[in-house]
Every structure is written in C-alpha cells, then in structure tokens.
Amino acid sequence: MASYDHTRGEIVLRIVYDGLGTAGKTTNLKMLHAAFLSRAMGELVTPDESKSGRTLFFDWLELDVGFVGDWRVRCQVISVPGQFVYAHRRFHLLREIDGAVLVCDSTESGVEQGAIAMTFLRQALESLGGAAVPIVLQANKQDRDGALPPEEVARRMPFEAEAVVPAVASTGDGVRLTLFRVLDLARSRVRERLAGGDPRTDLPPRTESAEALHAALLSSEEAGDSTDLVDALESAMALVK
Fold first, then answer.
1. Chain-wide mean pLDDT for the chain?
2. What is the C-alpha separation between 192 and 134, in angstroms, rounded?
C-alpha cells in the first residue's frame, strides 16, 4: 500500500521481488543498484546473508523513481528469501505492497518451480487483502539451454500476470524494463487512489528502514505470527503432487 513519509516529504512505494531459490531475485537488485547508482538512496542491504550468499531475510534497495503529480516518489525494492523453510518471512514481506515481480527461471524445471511460487504469491496476497496488487512476471535466464520463450513461461503459470518481461538478470538484460513495468502499474494505482487528493492526508504514514523491517521480522518469528500461512503453503505445494 502506498504511504507517505512526512519527514522526507515523499510518497513511498514498496515493490517485492518474489520467487523460489536461485531464480535470480538478488541478482536483479544488484543489477538495479548498479544501473541506478545516481538514484540509489543508500547501499543494497542484505541482513544476515548466508555463507553461500543466499538471502535469509531480504535484500533491500531504495531508489528515487521520480514523481506522481508534484510529489516525489521513493521506492523500496525488496527481494524475499526463496527457500520454503523461510516462507513465513516471505509472507510477512508481502504485506502492504504496491507491486510484485515474480522472477522465474525459464527452463522446464524452473517454470515448474515458478508455478509453485506464483500460487504462493497469489494466495498470500489474497489472504493479506492485497488481491489487486499488480504482478509482473520476469521470464529470467533466457540464455540457458532449453529456456522457454516468455509467452510459454506465462502460459504455464497458474495465474495471469499483468505483464511479462524476458530477461537475463546476470547480464542486466530486461532488469530495468521489469522495474519500469511494475512501477508504472504501481504509480497508476497511486494516482487512482489520490484522484487529485493530498498524499499527506490521504496516505498512511511510513518511515520504515531496512533495520526496522529486519527487527519486525525477528519479532514476528518470536511471536509465532503466521496468519493464513498454512493455507497459502498448502495451495502452493499442491502443485508438486
């Protein structure tokens, strides 16, 4: 959900890059940070990264992404951990977002995993009240042998995405276009919501930092908060059977 930072005087959007492990989520954020270095508001943050380089909590990148009307917009771009053992963290990170990118490995096995991730994403968003959140499907790793074309990757998904973008995130191909597509959709929702209004009064406040989000995740785990997570996981895992 779009929000407003009263301290900095900016509309804040939150975009989440979702998908199962090794699909290329962190690679996307690294490439975005390199491509938009002049627009980056700080470094790429990865709390408690594993020794193998796998994301355990999230990757966090803040970008200056222009304006909605006369109001400057800051985007919090976040990637989730892909392993199912950390599904509760993914579920938490999908709360109150403005758009999602499902990163999918375009090989046969990658598309099968992508279908599971898409089901989890849709089920989680619906249970969190975010059924209308736009999703962009990134058909990643198009350079792999046997990679399916983007249209076929989209056809094999259990739910339709608002846009499909071919990509090779490791070289940066399609990375910026993916972000542009999801940002366009997110900004359109903000414009509709404001409809000439004032974000200072019409949007909820938000000042959350990467450190605060990390702390909130740890607190949520200590409290055992997993609202509707079991249903979302069961729906996704049903595709494996």
1. 89
2. 14
Q: 201 exposed, middle or buried (CB, 10 Å; 0-12, 13-18, 19+)?
A: exposed
Alpha helices in the chain (DSSP H): 25-35, 87-93, 108-127, 150-155, 175-194, 199-202, 210-223, 229-237
What residues does 3 pair with on adjacent strands?
A: 12
* Pairwise CA distance, residues 164 & 233, whole Å: 24
Token pair in block for residue 207: 């000042």
Write b or e for each residue in 99-112: b if 16 or more Cβ atoms lie within 10 A of its Cβ, otherwise e.
bbbbbbbbbeebbe
The CATH homologous superfamily of the domain defined by 3-240: P-loop containing nucleotide triphosphate hydrolases (3.40.50.300)
| Torsion sign (Cα): 150, 152, 158, 162 | positive
- pTM to 2 decimals? 0.91
Nearest to 134 by CA among 10, 3, 16: 16
Amino acid identity of residue 227, one-letter, is T
CA pair distance 61, 77, nearest whole angstrom: 5
Work out the number of other CB atoms within 10 angstroms of the CB of residue 94.
23
As a whole-number percent, the residues of the chain with pLDDT over 70 amount to 88
Which amino acid, 167?
A
